[in-house]
Design a protein that fits this description.
alpha+beta, Jelly Rolls, Arc Repressor Mutant, subunit A, five-stranded antiparallel sheet, 9 strands
């Protein structure tokens, strides 16, 4: 297996590709945003996203908001997937995308932090295998599929489905590109609808509330700050990310990843990782 990180620097924000994938790869978003077209399906990928490709999948990307997005990539040997009891789910399925929960994202970032500090090949291989097992075991077969709730709500009318998905897509773009201090009314104004309609549609399209999605983005950004070593006081981190105060920051981060920010800052500097 091979694990590495990529920061996209592009001169042309338009579409690049499509190209055919030649191996099994898992991508995990870290920061920023891009457009992904995988086997003809379009998605916005951000710091909460992860997607898997296999040989023969067709993938294209664009960066309509400029460069600077960062992702990690885990290249998998087919033998590793073939040895799993659920091999058919991963070795032969078409390319897929979904979303990493907070705890899995923390494990991803801890793995990256250990690799940056320098560990030997033996330890790296063991950590990669443990991380892959947790990643695949937490990923449901149906991930990435359109929500049945949305189709029931709009009576399977294609034009309405497209419009609702476009609205949710645009709301995600606004939130990703914000400094997390925009209110719901301001987000709704930017996408051209009422807060009530936006909240209802976003829940139906994505399966989560706008608040939950915004919190996941905020926690990802906070983890980047904490992983950087000695940084600003937590009160300043809370204010910069739109939290009410340090207590609010601590509560949301603990809910998402299982540890408070102060402990995470120590763990990112500890070779032993998350207990």
């Amino acid at each position: 297996m091979l694990f590495y990180q990529v920061k996209c620097i592009v001169e042309d924000p338009g579409w690049h590709g499509p190209s055919l994938e030649t191996g099994h790869r898992v991508f995990l978003g870290r920061a920023g945003t891009a457009q992904l077209r995988l086997n003809g399906r379009l998605s916005l990928v951000d710091a909460t996203a992860m997607w898997l490709t296999r040989p023969g999948d067709e993938m294209a990307t664009s960066h309509p908001h400029g460069d600077g997005d960062v992702y990690s990539c885990l290249e998998l040997d087919p033998e590793v997937l073939a040895a799993r009891p659920d091999t058919e789910q991963w070795l032969h399925r078409r390319g897929w995308w979904g979303s990493a929960d907070g705890r899995l994202d923390l494990e991803h970032r801890m793995l990256a932090a250990h690799c940056r500090r320098g560990i030997d090949q033996f330890e790296m291989t063991e950590r990669l295998h443990r991380f892959l097992d947790r990643l695949l075991s937490r990923t449901p077969l149906g991930a990435g599929e359109p929500g049945a709730e949305l189709e029931r709500a709009v009576g399977r009318r294609p034009a309405t489905l497209v419009a609702h998905r476009r609205l949710a897509h645009r709301a995600r773009e606004v939130l990703v590109g914000s400094d997390f201090r925009l209110g719901l009314t301001e987000v709704a104004e930017q996408v051209g609808c009422s807060p009530h309609h936006l909240s209802r549609v976003f829940q139906r399209v994505t399966g989560e509330s706008l608040t939950a999605y915004r919190n996941r983005l905020r926690v990802r950004s906070v983890l980047d700050v904490l992983a950087g070593g000695d940084g600003p006081p937590l009160g300043e981190v809370a204010a910069a990310h739109g939290f009410a105060d340090q207590a609010h920051l601590t509560r949301v981060v603990r809910q998402q990843v299982g540890h408070p920010p102060a402990r995470l800052r120590r763990l990112f500097g500890d070779r032993t990782g998350v207990a």
